[in-house]
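Weekly puzzle thread! Below is a chain. First person to post its structure in C-alpha cell form gets bragging rights.
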Amino acid sequence: MAVQVHDREVAWEAMPQSARRRGFDPEAMPPACASDRRGAPRLAETEQQGIPMASDKAAGPPALDVDHVGHRYGPQIALDDVSLTVMPSSFTVLLGLNGAGKSTLFSLITRLYAIRSGSIRILGHDIMREPGAALSRLGVVFQSRALDADISVQQNLKYHAALHGIGRSRADLEIARVLDLVAMTDRRHDRVNTLSGGQMRRVEIARALLHRPKLLLLDEPTVGLDIKSRADILGHVRRLLTAENIGVLWATHLIDEVGDDDNVVVLHQGRVLAKDSVKNVVAALAAPNMAAAFTKLTQGAGADAAGIAK
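Winning reply:
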C-alpha cells in the first residue's frame, strides 16, 4: 500500500535534521505519494448547540467539523465532548490557558493521535474513513519549530513540496506564490538560521500553504515572538481568508490576539465553554470585552484570571 502524503510528512517532521540532509532525496520520492489525495459556568446548552457561529451561514461544508470528540490520557480526561466548526474564509480563535487541550485537539485533527470518540471532518471528508482526501486539504503550523535551520528557505520548501508529490516545475511556482503571500520573497535563498523568529514563522506558514489547503491550523504560532512580529504574523494569516479562501483555526492563550470580528471557541480543562462570534459571546455574558467574558466563563472552574496573558 502506498504511504499517504500525511504519513510521509509526519515522518519528515520526526526525522533528525542531519538525517534529512544526508538521506532524503525529494526527486527520488515515488509518485504514489500524490496518488492517495482524494463545573464551569457554561453558556446555556441551547446557546452552545442550537445557535451556529456567525460564519456558519456560508454555503458548502465546513472547512473543519469537530463533532463530540473526547480523548483521555489514561484516567485523565484531556477533551470532553468537544464540538466546533470552522467555515471557509473564516478566522476562528481557539482560546484557552496552557493545558486546556488545544494541542491535543490539533493532534487529533492531524491524525497524530487516533480518535477514540466522536468524529472530525475536513471539507466534508472524515479523517478516519477518508484520510487522504481530508488531510490533503489541511495545512498545519505546529508550535515547535520544524524548519531545517542549516539549509535555505527555498530548499526547505522544495523538500516539503516533494512530500506532497508536487513536481519540480510546479513547486517553483508554488514556492514563489507562498513566499509572496508572507512577504518573504527576498529571503528565499537565505539560510534559515539567519532569519528572525518571526521570519521563520512566516516561512512555516508559507510551507503549510504550498499544496493549497482549504483549512489552516496554527498552534500557538506567536509564542516567543515580540509584539511587532506577533502583529505581522496575525496580519499575514488574516489576509489569507480572502486571498486563499481558507478557513483558519488559530490556537492561543493570548487574549489580545482575539479580534472583535473573529469567531471564538473558549476551551477550558478540555471542555468548550463558549463558541460563537466574539461579539455574541461578550453580549451573552454582559461583559465589557472578551477578556472579561473569558474570566466569567472560567472563574467557576478555578481558573486564575491572571493566567491568561494580556
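Puzzle host: Confirmed. Bonus trivia for everyone else. Residues 50-148+214-307 form a domain with the Rossmann fold fold (CATH 3.40.50.300).
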